[in-house]
Amino acid sequence: MIGSRSLIYCSILLAMVLAIAPMPAITEAFRPDWVLIVLFYWSIAMPHKINVGTAWVTGLLLDVLLGSVLGVHALVLAFVSYVAAVNHLTIRNFSLWQQALIVGLMSAFYHLAIYWAQHFLTTAEFFPGLMWPTLINTLIWPWAFLMLRKYRRKLRIR
């Protein structure tokens, strides 16, 4: 039988595959941050299994996959995971739309922090289209939450 951690890691791996999957150029700016959404879910659902270390390693792998400055995604995903894990009891009591707003705020922080770090370390330029995934993540959260919760309950991940 597959362990619960392995099933969680499989969902994170699927999110990483979705993060690098090819998309039409016109929709690339609207790509959801699947890794952020999945890590946020597991951080509020099971903070004792998915922690800052998991987010850090996932972020390093994402940096390698995306070819970005090493450690940028790791740092920001670790911070988002920390905030979610520390406040998991409060966030769980919110409605799905309130949670979606929190995911939107975390997503905005994620994109601005990555931009800031890349601007500081390279010659990255800011453009307003950088924030489109924030809106998409906010709109996708209720669906993603329900799908991941169904996955967790059906496979009895504890």
From TrEMBL:
<dbReference type="GO" id="GO:0005886">
    <property type="term" value="C:plasma membrane"/>
</dbReference>
<keyword id="KW-0997">Cell inner membrane</keyword>
<comment type="function">
    <text>Involved in formation of the rod shape of the cell. May also contribute to regulation of formation of penicillin-binding proteins.</text>
</comment>
<dbReference type="Pfam" id="PF04093">
    <property type="entry name" value="MreD"/>
</dbReference>
<feature type="transmembrane region" description="Helical">
    <location>
        <begin position="96"/>
        <end position="117"/>
    </location>
</feature>
<dbReference type="InterPro" id="IPR007227">
    <property type="entry name" value="Cell_shape_determining_MreD"/>
</dbReference>
<dbReference type="GO" id="GO:0008360">
    <property type="term" value="P:regulation of cell shape"/>
</dbReference>
<feature type="transmembrane region" description="Helical">
    <location>
        <begin position="53"/>
        <end position="84"/>
    </location>
</feature>
<keyword id="KW-1133">Transmembrane helix</keyword>
<keyword id="KW-0133">Cell shape</keyword>
<keyword id="KW-0472">Membrane</keyword>
<keyword id="KW-1003">Cell membrane</keyword>
<dbReference type="InterPro" id="IPR026034">
    <property type="entry name" value="MreD_proteobac"/>
</dbReference>
<keyword id="KW-0812">Transmembrane</keyword>
<protein>
    <recommendedName>
        <fullName>Rod shape-determining protein MreD</fullName>
    </recommendedName>
</protein>
<feature type="transmembrane region" description="Helical">
    <location>
        <begin position="129"/>
        <end position="148"/>
    </location>
</feature>
<comment type="similarity">
    <text>Belongs to the MreD family.</text>
</comment>
